[in-house]
Predict the 3D structure of the following.
Amino acid sequence: QVQLVESGGGLVQPGGSLRLSCAASGSIFRINAMGWSRQVPGKQRELVANIFSGGITNYDASVEGRFTISRDNTKNTVFLQMNSLKAEDTAVYYCTADLTTMVSDTVHLRADYWGMGTQVTVSS
C-alpha cells in the first residue's frame, strides 16, 4: 500500500513564499515521476509541476520562474518551493506520483497515486 503525505500549506500574503513537501511510503520499487497539481473549487485540477526520475522537470506556464520542484531520492520526498505567490495561486495542492510497486518478489505494478491535498491561500 502506498501513501503520499503532504505538508507545508497555509496562509501567506501576496509576494510571499511557501514550501510544500510530500513523502511517499510503501512497497515502492521505483519512482518514475512525482509532481504537484492544484484545484480551485468549480474548476478542473491542473498540473503545476513534475519531476521525472532522471531529474527532468516541467512547469505550467503560470508558475514558471516562480515555483521550483525538487526531490530527495533518499527519502522519497518531493518539494515545491513557491515564491512570489499571487492570489490566483490559491488552491488545494495535491501531490502526485507515478510509482512502480512490489506486489511480490517478481511482480511489479505501475500506477498513479494522489495525496489528500493541502490548502494554499494567498491573501492580504
